[in-house]
User: Fold this.
Amino acid sequence: MPKIAPYGSWSSPIQAADVASAGVVPQWLDVVDGAVWWAEARPAEGGRVSLVRLVDGDVEELLPAPWNARNRVHEYGGRPWLSDGTTLVFTNWTDQRVHVRDLISGEVTPITPEPHEHHGIRYGDLRPGREGEVWAVRERTTGPRRTDIARDLVAIPLTGGEPRSLSASHHFLTAPQLSPDGRHAAWLGWNHPAMPWDGTELCVAEVHEDGTFGAHHVLAGGPDVSVCQLEWEESGTLLALLDPDGWWNLHRVTLDGELTNLAPAEAELGGALWKLGARWTVPLGGGRHAVLHSGRLAVLDEATRSLTPVAPELTEWATSPAVFDGGVVGIAAGPRRDIAVVHVDLGTGTVTDLTPQPPLPPAGYLPVPRARTFHTADGEPVPAYVYPPANPEFTAPHGELPPYVVHAHGGPTGRNYPVLSLDFAYFTSRGIGVVAVDYGGSTGYGRQFRERLRERWGLVDVADCAAVAGALVAEGTADGERIAIRGGSAGGFTSAASMTTVRTYSAATIKFPILDLEPWTGDGGETHDFESRYLDGLIGPLPETAERYLKRSPINNIGALAGPVLLLQGLEDEICPPEQAERFVESLRGTGIPHAHLTFEGEQHGFRKADTIVTALESELAFYGQVFGFATPGVPPVDLRR
Assistant:
């Protein structure tokens, strides 16, 4: 017989430490010399990223501490490793240099010069170049501002020495890829104010006998067409994901610019290029291609121009599928399974875990996301995933409705997936529901849906999240007096903007946020180069729309704040720097509005350290308990100031 206790106060076997330990996340997977390799983020080691490979069913570490395979290109990082099976080339976080590790002797040697200033030069998106070289994107600081950055494409000698510049066609670039015959190189480029999901160009240049590049020419893409991935198919053709018809579809591109859509569909087979080196498709041979259709694995068949779903129980694949052992290997998760390295037999659809599922609590404590579509007042669809409270040991008193937390994803050009989330289960197992909203601007639904947010950030996202929360209250699913909103980065902005413009929520958790829009620009100086013109599309160009920046900045609307806020911030964040949160908190002092501000040393954008993850989750739970009036046994209260 379940115990009767108020929602939010249920005891749960899912502890914050369990969520942190589950954060050992595989990433950047590939197949090398017949073996599956991947990078692995480890919260227990301060967020260090190691590299491992699977050998005869055992995971072998290839990059021991203190090496950390990360880089700062675009601040989000790019592909950090490359190997031929005997040597490992990788970027190291501490010095941002490229290193080579001999996998036989274990010796590690830096092959790029030491920069004159800390992290003054960084490399990313490592690719095989001509013999004896690695090709990459190089990013150099050129002045004191966060936007004082120059980039070029470089060839790095494996024996060490000064990298050789190959091209600087655009302000932003992906690393060049060498054609099978060695005669051409191809890459993507774009310039401000475009973001890569707005407009990019697929560039090709001849590679001369001395290794230099000729003048590049553009084969595909443009101001209103986004190319998010390219791969050489043969020496005269490329495969590319681009969206001239409003959806990222797979195209064949010839060197004279002929473009063929291999399977026209209103389907997203690509995504937002936040990290250089992301991969959504890989050729299988015989006119078939493995693709990620809105994050799910499918097979595209050129002959029938069709998309066939595979392993539908896996609802999110990381952007690094690869061909292996007659099928596809990758990093995937589903509604009832946590993230793991998996192999899918394309003939049978059989899924085999290559890494074990982390220890999970019994299924009764894990909510299964329910995919739903809500609608705004003017009829616009808003997809969302509802994670209801779930705990087999408890039930709430008769007539009580649960509190709910609206989760606003980051980006804002991002999205949610219907997968098992211990982060959400930490709350739902205690009686707090979570709903993850794909507000207008999210990826996965075509360009038209993405562009609902154009110049309307702080309006559309706020309205969509409020519409979902309002619908849950209206149907009797959620307690309208106990609705909170949470989010990090752009989701932190949406959370703060919601608290200052609508009366849907009683509290907000605001993580590493944007709170003051005009300073979060290139001229304002409080963000990095990659996103320094992002607001041109999200809010409007300056100075013409300066008034919007003022009106939509949460820091300028503190007098309208609907309730208490909890702010969580990393102190080494170069994307959403801590001074934004500091000014917001300073403005809150003396207002009488309960608030707390927790900062974390050594954390950049997003939390990677186990102790940070634990503190952040426990503080968030305690915060909701204090605001909504339920006990949180075993979790210390947050010091709410006024």
